[in-house]
Amino acid sequence: MHALVSSEPDVKGETAVTISETIPLSRSEQWTVERAVAAVADSLDGVRRLGVAFSGGVDSSLLLALAVRALDAERVVALLGVSPSLAADERSAAHDVARQVGVRLVEVMTYEGDRPEYQANGADRCFYCKEELFSRIDDGIADRYGLDAVAYGENADDARRPDRPGARAAANHHVLRPLADAGITKSAVRTLAHALGLQVADKPAAPCLASRIPHHHVVTPTKLSQIERAESALRQLGFAELRVRHHDDVARIELPPADLIRAVSDPLRTKVLDAVRGAGFRFVAVDVGGIQSGAFTLPLVTSDHD
Q1: pLDDT tens across 141-179, in order?
Q2: In CATH, what is the architecture of 209-287?
Q3: Rounded to whole angstroms, how far apart are CA atoms 189 and 107?
Q4: Distances (CA, A) of 236 to 10, 220, 253, 296
Q5: How far is the C-alpha of 201 from the C-alpha of 185, rounded, in Å?
Q6: What is the topology classification, in CATH, of domain 5-195?
Q7: Which residues contact 183 (CB under 8 A, 6 or more apart)?
């Protein structure tokens, strides 16, 4: 039988989480919701009140839902970093997920864009982004909300990738990583999210807007705004999964292979052109290579791990 999350008012009139029976998942990994909750509970042993660094993506959403069952909703707070690198659509969607799970969401204003190291946009840009977030949490948010631990949604696959400098910032701030420590892979994350009925179970990965800018090209609010406007306009045309890479006057659009022909065929081709030019780009290109995760960072870091 399926394990589903439902939102119902609790005695205080706030949304609560109820979860039904657990189910076996894939034969290869044999994760059940019950086993995942137990693994997260082990990682959180001794924690009285937890903050989850939360983006609204499937990884942090699953961690949030499992933490609620391991600790109780009143002892878990979702912490959403907000800056120009977070698209407005992603910000709104994160609030929707927190409401579904039944936890309080606190927006943490971050200012990584003021850091010269972040603006320089080296391969370690994500370190400075996460360093800013975790520093803000340590410098006041944790005390204000009575948090004695913070966790984030790194999964076991992420932990093996060399292009995750943000993990170093998490380690520096003693941020917990229950999913990775339990060995929960990305595939298991999605299966568990389905079992829990999370609305983001099939949500494509949505890295921050700065990831669309080639390394060593300066990150600016103007560039981030152009990217956000172009991607939002393309979603309105029916493209659910995409990246708009910023190459100064040129926007390079990455789409799943199934969408490539549609994007360059009339009448949609003209609409794609107008949408992206309307965001401030002069030229518009569609990359036949499709969506390429880590395309800018991996070539710079893999040589150190060969």
Answers
A1: 999 999 999 999 999 999 988 778 889 999 999 999 999
A2: 2-Layer Sandwich (3.30)
A3: 24
A4: 36, 25, 15, 26
A5: 14
A6: Rossmann fold (3.40.50)
A7: 156
